[in-house]
Write a structure and sequence with these properties.
The protein is α+β, with helices and mostly antiparallel strands. It contains 14 helices and 13 strands. Strand 5 and strand 6 form a beta hairpin.
Amino acid sequence: MQEGMLFHHLYDRSSVAYFLQTSYQIHGTLDISFVQRSLVELSRRHDVLRTAFVFSEASRSLQAVLKSREIEFAYHDFRVFGWAEMGDRVRSFKEADRLRSFDLSRDVLMRVHVLHLSDDVYEFIWSYHHILMDGWCLGTLTREYYEIYNSYIENRSYHLPVVRQYKHYIQWLSLQDESAAASYWSAYLSSYSGLSSVPALPSGSRNKGDYFLNKTGFSLGVALTRQVVSYARSRRVTLNTVIETVWGILLSRYNHTQDVVFGSVVSGRPGNLDGVEDIIGLFINTVPVRICYEAGTTFSSLVKGVQHDSLDGARYHYYPLAKIQSSVTGQPLLDHIMVFENYPDMQPPAEPAGADEVENPGPEVVSVDIFEHNNYSFTVIVMPGEDISIRLDYDGRMYDRSFIERIPGHFLTILDEALKNDIPVSRLSLLSASEREELLSSFSHGAVTEYGDEDT
């Protein structure tokens, strides 16, 4: 994954692809000197935070670990601005930070800005290049940061586990059987042809200019979420598998085929590597998910098949997508990805209840905002919870907004019917009730067939 990110950086150094920015407000009192010292200590603890990327056109790229490299830190006093304009000031600052991005050959690849908004309100802006680490790590770093910061406040030693360094994963990776992984993915994709895409605008109708991010989102609702969770448990499959299967069915309708492939971002953390859950570094990988079914295949049998493939392929999740792609010669393999995302808990650890807590409450985190951008023109982001939410991020130049806004209805229609009736996948409805009425009113003869049906 790092090699792929480095390629995209070299291909277009002005791109903000793989720039991640997490910002949030803190209500309470902060000691800025201790904030900075805590960040310095984090960089001392984790080797990957002290790395630099060394590359040239003539030699292999290297990720070098430096003896000393501190996280970039800056404090900005925004209290000189009026509160009415504060929101615009903060948004402009974050936008400028994103536009600055990172130069992988020169910059420290993580930086923290603290904006002092009022006496007891601060805005934390924590930015880093994705090549350094994945989103899982931010939760670990945040917990460690609060423990170190509190130790300075309380004049004590901090209590954290012994650090497992990223080099242990690199060593593990070097011992894996690449030929076995290549054989697995080649067999998994055997006989696959074509490119399964979300319908985009014709090239001649697309807007000119640079990539611009559009978003649309929807949620399943608490009731339907509970049904999905119950269904997954009863079939002994994961929630991810159910969502991926429904997306695959929707994609198959859009592309008039019963065999589709899209990318799925996996954690990439091997269960047999001791302490892997606490290692800071980049583990995630994008691997293909293939949804293939026959005319009589039911939803339940398809879900079980997707789950089986997921478990079977997990041992090869480390294998680079570029090499998987090479097994499908002469054609692109996929052009969009699905991400199951659990945002890290940014709250400080809870203090024991007592009088001191009431009189002098600790910092409270509010208004968390996360910006991220990859090199794909379309991304499906699934956020689990009591009410599963799904966000569609897409390049506004390439896709018609009116069509993208129909996708949630299509997805929910398929999901709802699949959970209620274990019928052949080919018979699952695509159109929502409102779309059916729209078509019926448009075609007075009533002979309406659904977009994506086999007889269309």
